Amino acid sequence: MLSATPINNRLTDLRNQIELITEGRDDYLEKTDGIGSIDAVMRLAQKRFNLWSSQAHGRHTTQSFAEYVNADYFKLLDALTIARSRKHVTKYYGTEAGTFPSRLAPRNVQEPIDSRGELPPISELYAMISDLTFAQYQLLSYVREDARPGYEVDYREGFGNDFGSELHRTNAVAVLMRVNLLKRMESSVSAFRTTLRRVRSSCADILDRLAALEARSIDDALSSVEVGYGIEGLEDGLDDRETEMFEVGAQIRVDLRDVDRETLSMDLTHDVEILDELIDYSSAVTPDRDAKLGALRTLIIEKTGTGQINSGNRKVLVFSAFADTVTYLYDQLASDLQRSHGLTCAQVTGTRNRITGKRYVRGSFEDILGRFSPHSKECIAFAEREGQIDIIFATDCISEGQNLQDCDCVVNYDVHWNPVRIVQRFGRVDRLGSPNKYIQMVTFWPDVDLESYIKLESRVKARMALGDASASGEENLLTPSEDMNDLEYRSDQLRTLRSETLDLEDMRRGMSITDFALDDFRIELERYMNAHPGILEGAPTGLHAVVDIPDNLRAQVSPGVVFCLEQRGDTGDSSRVTAPLSLIYVPRDATGARVLSHPTYSLDLLRQLCEGRHEPLDALCAQFNRDTRDGEDMSVYSALLAQAVATAITQGEATTLESLLTPGVISRGAASEADFSLVSFVVLL
Q: What is the pTM of this model?
């Protein structure tokens, strides 16, 4: 299984993936890796994970996770996963697999929506949007008390939830529509206007049905009195959770004979008045007044003319979260760019694909991408025959899994509220083996300062925090703490993206498989052994080094010793990745020894302490020799070693107890100092 963006929200997700690899065999790794029961390892890891999760906020670090979770869990990950990051490939493969292009500093564009300045500011438009009730998206709220029992039965049988839960869902959808309108307003005046008209049309439809019902002119057939909301043209730009909520809510149908018709009619009429005002405002901003559209046209002309990033490369990839915006950009720019500058443009939205030029009016998804990036798509002959495409206007349907590195410029026409999506877009051209020396990302920012924009988003998200639904036994559909923490994180990333281009590994919070991968160290070891055959194999035990502590590590370690111990014979704990070796850090300040249980962390710590130091550090060695009288008085270090051994024995006892819970596996921990030998140690001064 291969993934560029692995997401595991629970240990169960990873467990299910492992079962696909092992074909459900619990003892799949017993002979090869000494893991007798995968199920037992995962169950214990889940238990430890739950304990770790219960810690106070701020203590959920990768290091603390490693200290909580059983060691054989890391061994399981190491046996079945391979992680490669951009930094890993650059460091260990060099130019063997090609090179990554150099990233130019991001370019930021900020233009007003209306070049005449007659459109109200975003904050004022948002205030009008906030005053909308979006009644058609929460029709359950208008069902009369006497009619609710029938709906309660329907939703228990159809959705598995009670009426209260579905009511909260429809309330959340109404808030999502408010967010949706704000996002589309920031994207393009055309997408904003189109969406306003869709929302108004749905209001008018229900008002007409209500009027007909009052006039007794409506057919009593369910098709006439049962209403809900449609999602066509409104679903893009939402994340997975929002889309699911939106789509499930669209299945809810309400009989207009069961609602408080007067209240519903008043709210819909109220919305129509506001929507008409917003439509009038947006309709006044014609394409010739759209300053943002004009700025994009200028940017494309400059980039494909005298301002080329790489000589001869005229390709530009323009992204928007909304199909309505992409259609607008294509309609307004494609023909003019071809006629005036000889640029062939295409539109890709997943549901609608178009190409300008004489050869094709329409084109398939694959044809368009092949003609846009013929070298990466291996479609050179096809592109030469049919003609290359210079500009693509696309939604995020091509923001993942596509190699488009023939292009050297990505334009974010709108700022996706999930910064990861922006990085994924740029990843289409920021790829290994790119023929371009330089690449650049251009981002169009809203016509407000970033801090105001972030505060505006904060107010929107705050309104998405619904009241407690505990009376129904359900969790809140949207939890304030998660949304606010996520908002703070994403806001920080948006600030950073104005000045630098980030990698996906820089964007993530929390943990990843790469945090526990040992591939880097294996490659370093293999290269050293190949370059220095026989040195490690013939090295005596007891080797040691003396190092100082860099300033950036003083918060993690203090003066002391890192011991490498080996358990002899069959007393070793085979559940650990590094078995039968243990790395144990013993500080001299008597705070107690601790096992460096996170193998990646501990090896990386040693690497940071020792890397690049190929000769003894004379001053430090002289100090160590004075302290130990040239090795004759090792009492201080012997005492620290005794602490290390005691810690290793304690760890072995815990492992023995844990192994009793693992079917068919019993690990016997070391019982005394005689069960250990000292391999090497590093003195930290």
A: 0.73
